[in-house]
User: Fold this.
Amino acid sequence: MRELSLDQLRTLVNIVDLGTFSAAANALHLAQPTISLHVSDLEARLGGALLMRGSRRVQATALGALVIERARRLLRDADDLLEVTRKHVEGKVGRVRLGTSTGVVVNLLPRVLRKLESSFPGIDVEVNILGSNETMARLQEGTLDIGLVATPIQSSKDILITHWRSDRMMAFLPATWKSPAAIKPGWLVDKPMIFNDATTQMYRLTMAWFAEAGENPRARIELNYNEAMKSLVSAGYGAAVLPLEQPLAAELERHKDIRIVPLSPVLKRHIGVAHRALPGLDKATANVLETIRQFEQA
Assistant:
């Protein structure tokens, strides 16, 4: 026996709900002979009468009532499937795997996620805390969809990287330290230093800033979590060179035992958005990318 037709089941349900073949035909925008054919075909396949034609209304037989009860469930499931599929196609639901550093997670990503929750509450963003190199490797493997990475960074032809934002690097000093209005490498080099982990782009960026001035600082401790580094600065353990990822007043409000002083020469940390080519992305990933780009900064 051929598979049952959802269109025929929908016809059967409409006839019983509306009471006549003609009313069902009008509601479904079908010719009445087509309606009759749907019913006769169903009855032939199921082996029994499904409807009783009364003087005023068409009513279901016992077999028809059983079929209609199950048909309603099938039609609801089919409608739900179409709705879920439509939302996936439009990118309103889905799961997007994002890789980013701890610094971005603490200060920048929450703003992006709040906007996503408002615009696309059906998209589940899975956040992975990773270094930039690991993020690029996992994008290449296909186990991530989007990466926020420090640039410049080595890429491949399969992965696109576009500039997202640039944050000015600053000297974060214990509030008890006296310092000039702008911090030069020579002034900072002999101070106790809290550096990012040597495997990070931030470490290489900071060391290059010292090296251009002919200085070679030594770290008192290396970490890979900016907020932990700021806590150590607050405790007077040493100084750190970190990006200013939010307005200065807001940063100082959060860390009252820290002084934040500009660097001279100016140093900036650049972040890019990495992902596969747009034709290969699903719509949910494309919507997350578009939301991230709303927080771009020159």
About this structure: The radius of gyration is 32 Å. The first helix runs from residue 6 to 18. Residues 107 and 246 are 7 Å apart (CA to CA).
